[in-house]
Design goal:
Layout lengths: L1 E8 L3 H13 L5 E4 L8 H4 L4 E2 L9 H11 L6 H20 L25 E2 L5 H14 L4 E4 L2 E7 L19 E6 L4 E12 L20 H8 L4 E2 L4 E8 L13 H4 L3 E3 L19 H15 L4 E4 L5 H7 L1 H9 L9 E10 L2 E3 L11 E3 L4 E2 L12 H19 L24 H17 L6 H24 L4 H22 L25
Parallel strand pairs: 1-2, 1-8, 2-5, 8-15, 14-16
Antiparallel strand pairs: 3-4, 6-7, 7-8, 9-14, 10-13, 11-12, 12-13
Helix pairs in contact: 1-5, 1-11, 3-4, 4-11, 6-14, 9-10, 12-13, 12-14, 13-14
Bound molecules: flavin-adenine dinucleotide and succinic acid.
The site of flavin-adenine dinucleotide (FAD) has 41 residues, from helix 1, helix 2, helix 5, strand 6 and helix 11.
């Protein structure tokens, strides 16, 4: 049994920035950070374009960033959350710089600012086209110097602990559900540990792995959302899955390599198979329209032309400048025989970001006591029906800070719950064949991509739900009888996430932002968030 004042589940930008702050505030208290594979294997590490923030007050303003976020969110953002994130963001970015993150500067020493879809101004700080890698490096380096942070890698959290584990019947209407820690499979010892904690932060990231084509690494399996759903906590807005318009089209390669939207910000143009620059047919903002619009336009061009991709044209761009801003993309394209100065880049949309998730308030509280959530797994109200590009890293920093402010005040009021029993593995045996798990994953990814993608219909959603019911039944049977492995738990979690996406998509009788249902092509008068 392990015991810690602060348990942080996840080592991306949300988890690490929170852990650092709490550990610095309470040097005598222990902060435990758990991560299921290597510490740096996170969505954070793959972020390319950068972090949005108002730093150039001559040309930009909070009002403009707020307005851009609200327009992209298509009527479902919480305006108070938007204001909090935009106004507090620059201070949080400054802290990242103080922790050692290097954002690119020009010859005068001013930050070079990029632009992406939906932004009315240049406001995105970046480190070439590997901003996330730089952020993750700086945070892990800072964490390694903080003596009271224990970082445990290859440790898979299975479930959060609540009154359910004390034998009580918990339902969605049970008042005051509390969290006491987590059960986690330590892959160094192959034992399931009970970890008791006073404050628990879920910073478990996204769920792109629910789809066959995604920019998200293998770790993005929606574990935090599924755990909270099982614990009867509140989940919202799961239908708003953001498809990034321009993932490199490379059949058989998973995850898909991203071609950052910043390339379009610097002048890249989308073309269909006939070489036509098609975006002007869809939106006055052309290639820099918000992501939902660009992804749908590409989907439509692909369907009309019977192709599996469109093209991104960078031939007219200054090659030297391109290499300076996007060295990683340049190298990747060269490695597959495309020189961006005379060849077109084949691109197609890929599942990229989950706008919804665990419902949280302005201090990152979930509906479960002592349990907080930050980063991509949380639904704060910032993104509404469609996230504005590069607002995600910003959101994670702002809410991990707010979570820190709130939780350090509360920790002394909380006692460890010593009555939680150890994990009981009775009645389970080693799996006879892995194919039952791997096949379930393939089926799930296929059905989500085919029926719950960029364009949805009532019949497709119904079909998806029927198949999900069967997958759920089969995986629960395996879970009850088999020795647990991360693979089994991840598929189980992804099936839950798939169910939540479809369920909320079925409730939404309109098309809004990232949720487009041809049976309800218009928007409804009543703008609402659906909470499960
Ligand atoms: P992550 O960084 O994903 O971290 C999740 C952590 O949780 C990992 O450590 C993982 O191991 C751990 N974890 C999960 N489940 C468990 C479990 N069961 N047990 C133990 N540990 C667990 N956003 C921007 O703002 N700007 C960008 O330029 C940008 N570019 C992107 C490019 C790509 C290719 C991708 C995939 C995303 C991009 N995003 C971008 C989105 C952004 O990177 C993510 O939303 C953000 O980094 C999420 O951070 P996080 O801390 O919430 O989660
Ligand atoms: C990108 O660089 O295009 C991704 C930015 C984001 O997802 O916010």
């Amino acid at each position: 049994m392990l015991q810690t004042d602060f348990l942080v589940i996840g080592s991306g930008v949300a988890g690490l920035s929170y852990a650092l702050k709490v550990a610095q505030y309470y040097p005598e208290k222990k902060v435990m950070v758990i991560t299921k594979t290597r510490a740096d294997e996170t969505n954070t590490k793959y972020a390319q374009g950068g972090i949005a923030g108002v730093t150039d007050l001559e040309n930009d303003s909070f009002e403009k960033h707020i307005e851009d976020t609200l327009i992209a969110g298509d009527g479902l953002c919480n305006p108070e959350t938007v204001e909090i994130v935009v106004k507090e963001g620059p201070e949080r970015i400054q802290e990242m710089i103080e922790w050692g993150t290097r954002f690119d500067k020009d010859a005068e020493g001013d930050y070079k600012l990029g632009k992406e879809g939906g932004h009315s101004e240049f406001r995105i700080l970046h480190h070439k086209d590997i901003t996330g890698k730089e952020i993750e490096r700086a945070l892990l380096e800072a964490v390694s110097k903080q003596k009271n942070i224990e970082l445990i890698n290859h440790c898979f959290v299975i479930d959060i602990l609540t009154q359910h584990h004390l034998g009580f019947l918990i339902t969605k209407s049970t008042p005051d559900i509390e969290c006491y820690g987590a059960y986690a499979l330590n892959l160094h010892t192959n034992k399931i540990e009970k970890i008791l904690a006073k404050i628990i932060l879920l910073a478990t990231g996204g769920n792109g792995q629910a789809y066959r084509t995604t920019t998200n690494p293998k770790i993005a399996t929606g574990d935090g959302v599924a755990m909270v759903y099982r614990a009867k906590g509140r989940i919202e807005n799961m239908e708003f899955i953001q498809f990034h318009p321009t993932a490199l089209f490379e059949p058989g390669v998973s995850p898909s390599f991203l071609i950052t939207e910043a390339v379009r910000g610097d002048g890249g143009i989308l073309r269909n198979k006939n070489g036509e620059a098609f975006m002007e047919k869809y939106d006055a903002r052309k290639d820099l329209a918000p992501r939902d619009i660009v992804a749908r336009a590409i989907d439509n061009e692909m369907k009309k032309g019977g192709t599996e991709h469109v093209y991104l044209d960078c031939r007219h761009m200054n090659k030297e400048k391109f290499i300076e801003h996007f060295p990683n993309i340049y190298q990747k394209c060269m490695s597959i025989g495309i020189d961006i100065s005379d060849g077109l880049i084949p691109v197609a949309p890929a599942a990229h970001y989950s706008c919804g998730g665990i419902k949280t308030d302005e201090w990152a509280h979930t509906s479960i006591k002592n349990l907080y959530a930050c980063g991509e797994c949380a639904s704060t109200g910032l993104h509404g029906a469609n996230r504005l590009a590069s607002n995600s890293l910003l959101e994670a920093l702002v809410f991990s800070h707010r979570c820190y402010l709130d939780s350090v005040q509360r920790v002394s009021e909380i006692e460890f719950n010593q009555n939680i029993p150890d994990w009981n593995a009775k009645g389970t045996t080693e799996p006879k064949e892995m194919i039952l798990i791997t096949q379930s994953l393939k089926e799930l990814q296929l059905l989500m991509s085919d029926y719950v993608g960029i364009v949805r219909t009532n019949v497709r959603l119904q079909r998806a739900m029927k198949r999900l019911d069967l997958l759920h039944e089969e995986i629960e049977a395996l879970y009850e009888t088999t020795t647990l492995s991360p693979q089994l738990c991840e598929v189980r979690n992804l099936i839950t996430v798939g169910y939540l996406i479809v369920k909320e998509a079925q409730f939404r009788h309109e098309s809004r932002g990232l949720h487009f249902n041809t049976d309800f092509p218009g928007k409804s008068e009543l703008v609402q968030n659906i909470i499960l």
